[in-house]
TrEMBL record:
Matches recorded under InterPro entries: DjlA_DnaK_co-chaperone, DnaJ_domain, DnaJ_domain_CS, J_dom_sf
Domain of life: Eukaryota
Biased segments, Polar residues type: 451-463
Region feature (Disordered): 445-467, 531-552
SUPFAM superfamilies referenced in this protein's UniProt entry, alphabetically: Chaperone J-domain
Basic and acidic residues: bias regions: 533-545
Protein name, entry field: J domain-containing protein
J domain residues: 475-548
Annotated Gene3D superfamilies: DnaJ domain (1.10.287.110)
UniProt cross-references to CDD domains, sorted A to Z: DnaJ
């Protein structure tokens, strides 16, 4: 739940008072050699209790297997999982295009209005919120680690001693002699903060949509841009207690045709046995009994209703071989479906992920021009969200710690480089626009004093029409690879030409070479983007074709 900073001391003061409790500033080297830890929360449950909790969690469903953890392959482990706990205060503003209903107009006709909410409110995000606690490792799936989070984790944490840091082990509890390992925090703080900030933006976007619907009652909301600017950020590395249960259930076939049991994992909080994360299962025998009972009940009902119409007795409909066959078929199908249930759920989840990814890709393409286009801020945010969702969800049932960690590092570095490239691009565009405006001002001043220049007369509309074609005095058409201007050249043709040219000259495609080569590629891409910015706008294109200076 969001907490407003209005009318109260606020989170900033609270953070300043509490930063001395745990050690901060874990360096990149410390993250990889495990030399430094911030705090730890003690266990309050045992492995045996965790095993019972998993069995109880599955037993909440009637169709679940009764003895799920007794089929072999059972592995139990207690560990302290690392989490980055963040606390921040953000300044929020947003803008959007609203499709409002028009009175006495057909339902499909909307009046579009730009709405902007200035940055006036401060929102507190303390470390007690689940999305401000980020699992700082790649060892387990992200959705399984959710069970370990605790709202009072920071308040209950104590500092890890130097000896515990050295041995990377901590006593399980205050009155326990058993040691539990500290899982190393392999996720850098910058990546964890990126994930937390993504959640903050999503929370604020949902809140903005709700406010817009309540205030404006729009038929449609488009181009929602949310600015969540952090004013302060504090981070703690805290180890939270967890029990992991690995077990086997069901069987499948490998690519070589060998039968192999499926392996599943469940995670239980070390402080609250009600917090369990795992995958549901269905007992094939119970599914068969349920199918047989449902079919038999349905058969009796159909028989009772059909007797007056078909003139047949009940024994001929219920006790015959056909009924036995259908019962056998239904039971067999139910048993197969129960065994395939985890796989079916996985396929459904993957289908939903791909659908959401396609929707985000469509929004991105609607704002930009593809993977090489720098786009605007919203387009970059859409792309970043899609990449992180794919990282979290894609093929997560074959989670491999090393591969997933390397993937996250590549994503973070790529997004960081894109932000730098976009900042340089915007800066270059600004400088180019200032140069163009200065040239236009000089030309206007000279025209007032001496008359139009020979260049302007050469590119005047009359001369252009007499020549039977347009002039390309800045080389914009040439940059896009177009063979001269043409009256039949459409905006779509220009967009297609820009995509092709961008694929050839984008700085990200310069894999090797000197920094000068990358700078040259970046400069060329800026010119290319400037050319497209002018030519895709019909008004600016007409000005350019007539030899006038574009005004954007």
């Amino acid at each position: 739940m969001l907490a407003s900073s209005r009318g109260c001391p606020g989170l900033l003061t609270t953070l300043q008072r509490s930063t001395a409790r745990l050690r901060l500033g874990v360096s990149g080297a410390d993250l990889h050699n495990g030399a430094t830890a911030a705090g730890v929360v003690h266990f309050e449950t045992t492995l045996e209790q965790a095993q019972e909790a998993v069995q109880k969690w599955h037993g909440q469903k009637w169709l679940a297997p009764r003895r799920l953890l007794s089929e072999g392959g059972l592995e139990l482990r207690s560990a302290l999982l690392p989490f980055w706990l963040f606390a921040t205060t953000v300044q929020v503003s947003y803008s959007a295009r609203l499709g409002l209903a028009v009175q006495d107009a057909p339902p499909g006709v909307l009046r579009w209005q730009e709405v902007e909410e200035k940055a006036s409110s401060l929102q507190d995000y303390p470390w007690s919120l689940p999305h401000m606690q980020v699992y700082a490792s790649y060892k387990y799936r992200r959705d399984l680690a959710e069970a370990v989070k605790s709202a009072d984790a920071y308040d209950r944490a104590r500092e890890v001693s130097d000896d515990e840091n050295a041995y990377q082990e901590v006593l399980a509890g205050k009155h326990s002699s058993d040691s539990v390992p500290l899982d190393p925090p392999t996720m850098r703080q910058a990546i964890a903060w990126e994930l937390a900030l993504r959640s903050i933006r999503q929370q604020e976007a949902d809140k903005a949509r709700m406010e817009l619907r309540l205030k404006w009652k729009p038929r449609e909301i488009r181009d929602l841009k949310v600015q969540a600017k952090p004013l302060a950020r504090h981070a703690h590395l805290v180890f939270l207690p967890a029990h992991t249960v690995s077990y086997q259930y069901g069987q499948g076939f490998t690519a070589a045709g060998e039968r192999r049991p499926y392996t599943f994992q469940a995670v239980v909080s070390g402080t609250d046995l009600d917090n369990v994360a795992g995958e549901r299962h269905i007992d094939p025998l119970k599914a068969q009994l349920a199918a047989a009972g449902a079919l038999a009940t349905g058969g009796l009902a159909i028989t009772a209703l059909s007797l007056p119409f078909v003139g047949l007795g009940a024994p001929r409909l219920i006790g015959g071989a056909e009924t036995a066959f259908w019962l056998f078929l239904a039971c067999s199908a139910a048993g197969v479906g129960a065994r395939m249930w985890p796989q079916l759920l996985r396929e459904q989840s993957e289908t939903q992920r791909i659908k959401e990814e396609d929707q985000e890709a469509a929004q991105f393409w609607a704002r930009g021009l593809g993977p090489t286009d720098l786009g605007d801020e919203l387009a970059q945010e859409l792309r970043d969200n899609a990449e992180w969702r794919r990282w979290e969800q894609a093929d997560k049932w074959r989670w491999r710690e090393g591969e997933r960690g390397a993937w996250a590092e590549r994503l973070w570095r790529g997004q960081h480089e894109r932000r730098i490239a976009r900042a340089r691009f915007i800066s270059g565009q600004t400088r180019q626009r200032l140069r163009d405006e200065a040239e236009a001002a000089q030309e206007a001043a000279r025209a007032r004093r001496w008359g139009q220049s020979s260049q302007y007369q050469h590119f005047s509309p009359g001369q252009r029409n007499a020549a039977g074609g347009r002039r390309d005095y800045k080389g914009y058409y040439q940059l896009l690879g177009l063979d001269g201007p043409s009256a039949s050249l459409s905006t779509g043709d220009i967009a297609k030409a820009f995509r092709q040219a961008a694929l050839r000259s984008h700085p990200d495609r310069i894999e090797a070479g000197t920094e000068a080569a990358r700078d040259q590629a970046a400069e060329r891409f800026q010119k290319l983007s400037r050319a497209y910015e002018v030519l895709r706008d019909p008004d600016q294109r007409r000005k350019y074709d007539s030899g006038q200076q574009p005004t954007i």
